[in-house]
Design goal:
The protein has 148 residues and is α/β, with parallel strands linked by helices. Helix content is 36%, strand content 21%.
């Protein structure tokens, strides 16, 4: 806080508040908030599915999603791994087709996938499917190894 002398002969103490440092702090906090918000929005439950050329658009049964951050979702509901079996039993009891569709990130380890699919079998799944993203002809040609 800056204190200046009397202006114009009033004879009292006049105090001016310098708000420039306060404004600087608010602007820095605003920038930090904007950056952290954009990072948290981008990292929300993103699953990078494997690609396949022949997929059918069926959405029957129960969908189990496993992200690269080891998060489990049963029909888009976040479920801890220790509660996966009862959650799958409950979800399978609500559908006619006892099919479990596994959506796993490409970075998911094979052992994790097998463990989750075994839990699905124990929960009463009659069939198990693995979800894949449809590949176009151009994408398939770009992925083909070049012989030489």
């Amino acid at each position: 806080m800056a204190v200046s002398g009397p202006k114009g002969g009033g004879g009292g103490v006049f105090a001016d508040i310098n708000i420039t440092p306060l404004t600087d702090i608010f602007l820095v906090l605003l920038i930090i908030f904007m950056v952290t918000t954009s990072v948290t929005i981008e990292s929300a439950a993103h699953v990078d599915l494997p690609q396949a050329t022949n997929t059918s658009p069926e959405n029957k049964g129960v969908i189990v999603t496993y992200t690269a951050q080891h998060e489990l979702f049963v029909n888009s509901k976040d479920v801890p791994e220790r509660e996966l079996l009862p959650s799958l039993r409950e979800a399978l009891s609500k559908v006619d087709a006892k099919i479990v569709v596994f959506q796993g990130d490409r970075k998911v380890l094979l052992g994790d996938m097998v463990r989750i699919l075994n839990i699905a079998k124990a929960a009463g799944a009659g069939q198990i499917a693995i979800a894949a993203k449809r590949v176009t002809g151009a994408q398939l040609a770009n992925q083909a190894p070049s012989g030489g």
